[in-house]
Design a protein that fits this description.
The protein is an alpha/beta fold. The chain is built from four helices and six strands, in the order H-E-H-E-E-E-E-H-E-H.
Length: about 160
Amino acid sequence: MAAVKRKGLDGIAVTEHYTNYYGHKVKEIVDTHLDGKVVVVPGQELARMLLGSEPGVIHVVELYLPDDLIFRFIAHPGHPYIKDLSQYIDEGIHGIELKNPLHDRDGLTEEQIKELAKKHNLILLTNSDAHRLEDIGTYYNEIEIEELCARARKG
């Protein structure tokens, strides 16, 4: 958690593709051994298969919040490319990633993402998608857990 504190962050979300084990394990360790000095939100990234006139896949991250709430956001929208992403955004999606250093120039432009966020009332997120300790905090969000919970309750 030293890397998190060095970047001046109060907390992080810990996710992995197709499993929430690591996020929950990191939260357990931090809460037990570090007195919860860093907020850890466990989660996982899932592939949502799209059927219909334009088959494909979008990546949705689930963050597991207090009171069994789940906040969901679309990760790196437009990667892989989907012509009309809007048709796949339902009330179960609460946010959309605007920036991610691994996918900043993939798929949709920032303007297109902002239009989707406005149309569907989604929170815009900037995430580091860190795969190495030094990448933590490359991008970050200033948002309260309560805001994520409020969005998750609505959908």
